[in-house]
Amino acid sequence: MTLQREKQRVASTEVLQALANGEEIRLDGCTISGDLDVARLFVKEENFDVSAVQAAAAEGGRVVTFSQAIVFNSCVFEGNLCVAGPWDRPADVKAVFERDVSFNSSVFHGQAHFGGAVFKGATGFDGCVFRRVVSFRRAAFGARAMFRTVLFEGYGLFNNAVFAGEVRFTNTCFSKGGNFTDVRFEGPTDFGGCYSASKAVPVIDGVYFARRRYGDDESFWRFVKQSCTEGGHYQLAGESFYSERCANFWRRFRGAGYNELSGLRKLGRILAGARLLAELVFGRWLFGYGERPIRVLLAGVLIIVLCALFYSSPRAAVSYRSDEHSQRLDLMDGLYFSTITFTTLGFGDMYPARTDRLTKSIAMAEAISGACLMALFVICLSKRFSRG
User: 99 with 146, same domain?
Assistant: First the structure.
C-alpha cells in the first residue's frame, strides 16, 4: 500500500494513519494541514488504529519504527512537524526510520522537531525552508544526509547529533544561527558556501570531525570564521581561521581520493607532501598561521637560553672589549651575551673570539633567528589586534 498524492491538500491525520499502517508515503507538491505529530498516534482521543505500529517500550518512553520509504517532495507543512516527544519531554517518543526519508524542497511553516530520531537510510532536506525553529538534537544519521541550499529562517539545533555518513550543508543559510555543540561528523563533510544572514555566530563547543586529518572540516571552519567576522567576534574568528588553515594543510597533504589509492600510491602521495614540511614547521607549529604569537615568543626564549648555555660552556670562546683574550663566561654573562646577540643589539663590550669559528657560527645563527622571530612576533600581534 502507498499513500500517493500530487498537488493536493492532505490532512495530517491521513498521513499519520498511513505511517501507522506501514504504508509508503509519496507526496509531491502537496499541502499538509494540521500538526503532523507522531505522538498523536498514542493519544486515545485521536482514535488512530495503531495495531500495525512497530512500537517498543524504552526507558522514559517508546521507540516507534517506520520501515517504509517516506517522500515529501516540494510539500508545504502548515502546522508543526514532530517525530519526537514534546519539547519538554523529547524522550517520550523516539522515531526510527529504516529506509530513505526525503523532504526535498519542502516548506515548514511551523516548528520542526526531529530530536532523537534515527535515520538509517539516506536523508534529504535539500532546498527546504524552515520558517521557525528546527531541531535535530541527538538525531543519528546512519547514511548520507543532504542539507544543501536549505534556508533556516529560525534557529537550527543540531547539538549532540551524529552524522555517520556523508553530510553536505552546501550553500545553506542559517539566518538566526545554529547550535553544533558536541556534534560528531564521522564521514565526508561539506559546508561550502554556508553563511549567516543575521551575523549570528554558530555555537561550536565540542564539535568533532573524525576525518580532520583529511581536511574535511575546512569548509566548516570557514563558515564559522565568516560568521564571527561579520558578527564582530574577532578572537573566535581568529581561532576558526587557525583551524581552517590546519584543515587546508591536511587536505593538500593527502589530496583528493586518498582512501581509494593503492598502498604504493599513498606512499607516493605522502612523499610528495614533503614539500609542505616548511609550512608545517614554520607556518603551523611556530607561527601558528599568525594566531599563536606566544609560540614565537617561547621559541625566542628557548633559543636565547640554549645559546646562553653554549656561551657559558668550555667550548665557546668569547672575548671582552677590555681584554682580547677569550674567557669562559658565567651563566649570567652568557645569558647577557645571548640576549644582545639575539636582539642584534650588540653593545660591543663582548664578541666571539676571532679564531673561534664555532662561536662565530652560533652567534650568526642566533642573530638571524632573532631578527626573523622578532619580525614574526610583531606580525602576529599586528594581525590579532588589527581585526575589524
Answer: yes
